[in-house]
Fold NAD-dependent epimerase/dehydratase.
Amino acid sequence: MEVFIAGGTGFIGRHLAKYLLRRGFRVKVLVRRPERALVISEGVIPSYGNPIIPGDWLHECAKADVIINLVGANIFARWTSKYKELIYESRILTTKHIVSVLTKGQILLNASAIGFYGTDRGEEEITEESAPGKDFLAKVCKSWEETAFSAKDKGVRVCTLRLGIVLGRDGGALSKMLLPFKLGLGGPIGHGKQWFPWIHIEDVCAAVTFLIKKDVSGPFNLVAPEIVRNKEFIQTLARVLRRPALLPVPPKALELIFGELVDILVGGVKARPKRLLEAGYIFSFPELFPALQNLFKKRLLRR
């Protein structure tokens, strides 16, 4: 079975390409520039092109059995008006291009985010049936998914991946947290009571593979079953790293750096992987402490 990954040179894409390759899939990855091909695993086939612009790379999409679309500008940057346009267009335009060449029988797994539900929904338990939020990122995710689901009219099986905060040492949010901890400056964001929907990178790869093989469609929350708050996450990370976590990060300080993005950082939803569990997926890392222990190869500490 041939898989084409758009966005395959990023943090999730690199892990996913290697994971699929080891399980017997033929994997092609969209690469913008030849030097970026250096980050992909041996055995993965590069296909060159800009995902925002139609090109020869779309022929590879048309031939693949499975298309995984992970393309999207990094949201962890200051949200100027121009950058918000890039966040939106990088997701919507790429997805439109991909959908335009798909035909009956193909499978599209399209990235989305837990941001679909907005922020700060209190104690409400969020499942795939919950209503979308109303903030900027929620509207982006809603449009992104609608664009992907338009492929259903062509007979394509479509799953959208509402990704939580993906934990891995070599990328994503966790890698950005390590320096403050090493300096003894780690701490929760604000009051720390906001929910922190997380998932281990290994479970992201395994869940995507599961969805390729399972005859299911629709949205799926890719988050771990154990729901924690930001403060609990930070305390657990500090325990694994054996570093202090005493200094809360003031939201005002983050606002100076990230602007409107601060609402995402100090918000969070109590999301559950309801549909993934119902489909029969078994998490390798359902609980936070073993997940972080695995990533940092630390000896289990006494509770």
Observations:
- DSSP finds eleven helices and 13 strands in the chain.
- Residues 2-166+199-223+271-284 form a domain with the Rossmann fold fold (CATH 3.40.50.720).
